[in-house]
Amino acid sequence: MPRGVFRMRLNCFSDSKFFSSSTPLAPIPLPSPKETHLWYVIPNEVKGESLLNKYMEILSPCEKENVFSMRGDEQRKSALLARTLVRTTIARYQINSSIQPISLKFRKSIHGKPEVDWQHCDHCEPSPLHFNISHTSSLIACGVTMNSPIGIDVEAKQRTVKHNVLTLARRYFSEPELQVLAAIKDPHLQHQEFIKLWTLKEAYVKALGRGFSGAPFKTFTVRFGSGIGESPHLSRYSNTEASEISVDMFDDPSDLTSNWQFMLLELAGSHYAAICTEKDVTSEGNKSGPMKLTVRKTIPFVEDECVSGTEAVRVLCGF
User: Which option is the CATH number for 30-45+129-318: 3.40.50.11690, 3.90.470.20, 1.10.1240.10, 2.40.10.10?
Assistant: First the structure.
């Protein structure tokens, strides 16, 4: 198969119903200083070879090679949609003038966190826009903020694990988190609590931008509730009681953990999504005020839907 053509065994709708090459990306205003935008796409809803090939056209040669290096149609499609979501999401924002998705250039920080290389983008000026992406085989999400670093993670609620939950917790989680999980006798509830904690911990590490070696999971504890020493166990609280998520990091003399804020969501009824952003100290007014969240479901170049306040987005805790 030629590298420039993307073919998969798909149950396709007629392409004419979904995609026109002239369909523009709807422009979106930049997030406010205290706002997070979350975009997500469900791979099973993206259908049609012509649309997938259009996505291939906006990728860099390196990104294309990465897509075709994946084994299996599902993995290739997931890799393609992840890069497409990043490019089309960032290109929507009126940062300078009109930005084409294919014009965007990316680089990695010293610890490997992807970021836009504004200096090498055609007709672009540096922007304080931050983004982060996370994907499973069944949902891909991209978070966007201004001035504030962001980390996100998504996991399927029914995600299976190769080992016993407590075995994994002993390997990756802090002692307080392990103790709380071990005290949960219901296997299903224990599994759900494990996934929630995992998404929050991964979002925090990604927001820090240090890489997993720079902030191992065992070196900090995620807690739910407003009091110091509160339990990491979310399900003991109602939605209103568990209004805060905090992090205790061992050996943190600068107390930088207080600079971060979290939100835990149930997304599309099937996934948990965790968002971690740094509090924007450049904004005026109440610096510790709540962060606003706007969630959009998309099929790039086809349709966008704001799903904030709908059944597709259930806020469990945070912000």
Answer: 3.90.470.20
